[in-house]
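Worked Example 4.2. Consider the chain below.
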Amino acid sequence: MNHKKCSVCRKNIAKYTCPKCSVEYCSTECYKKHSLICTESFYKESIENDLRKSKVNEESQKKALESLQKHSFDLIENIEDPNPNEGEEISEEEMKALKKLVNKEDLSIDDLTKSQKEAFFNALKLGKLNDIEIYEPWWSDSSVKKNDYLIEEIKGEKKEENPKKYDKIVPLSNLIKKEPSPKLKYNLVDILYCYAYIMRMYNGEINDSNKDEVFASISSISGVLGSDQVYSNFDECLDSCLKNTQQSSLIFVSDEYSLMIFKDVVSILKMGKNYVLRAIQELKWFISLIGSKKSQRTSMKLKFFLSWINEQNSLEFFEQIYQSIELILNTIDLKI
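Applying the procedure from the previous section yields the following structure tokens:
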């Protein structure tokens, strides 16, 4: 793992790297302090992607704008401080724009300058407006472990409220007569990576209004679901997932972001079989919204994986997978 000190505060362990200047930092506060100019430059380069990826309703935008207004006021105070932090330089025009922003009574998106819009959408996407409630996936919520997530089984012995109308999981013997390939565990990682990426990308809000875009994203991210990719090992799987996301400007955020998604995969696997089933059931439900022939084929693949996973009753099976992923991620961290 990376144990370098934060280049800004020089106290904590650095967890992140600035995509613009490669300075290593530990927190949002240190990121904001390291260079205002660098931060704004990054906002400007990222805006086209961020505008496409920001799925924000009117109420959330209003709250975010109020937060942006507050942060603008804090920024002005910091800049006008007699002992400003090094690197916090701003032009006269930018200062005027910030003051206008702070004094506006009923702020809207149209009141922002071009650079402010860029900063706003990027900050919203990356969770830098701390007053806004950020989407937190179910696998990162410690309270989820208090209640076992039970998938409705073929015998109907285990049931729970089923708002998404998940299909029953059929025995694997109903689908195939031969022994399943030992390589399926590599493909499972691909599918879970796709699920976690989609959930974060759309803030967990997948419905009729964005179903076509979601399906296109699934097809781009997953080599298993988008085509018929079969992996020979975990390294090959992780490499393919990274390349697939890098190749799509509509999906790609950063390599660091993609690696974070693999840590999501590890989290889901650590929670055990029922939670892995939940992820695949939800992904299958997303795809069921489409209703096309191509989506039906993808849905059949997931139906098979549900039956296969449902018969994996050994904890060691899931441990072996997530430990292999963690080992690869640690190696990647050392190279960064």
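Residues 58-80 form the longest helix (23 residues). The longest strand covers residues 16-17. Compare this with Example 4.1 before moving on.
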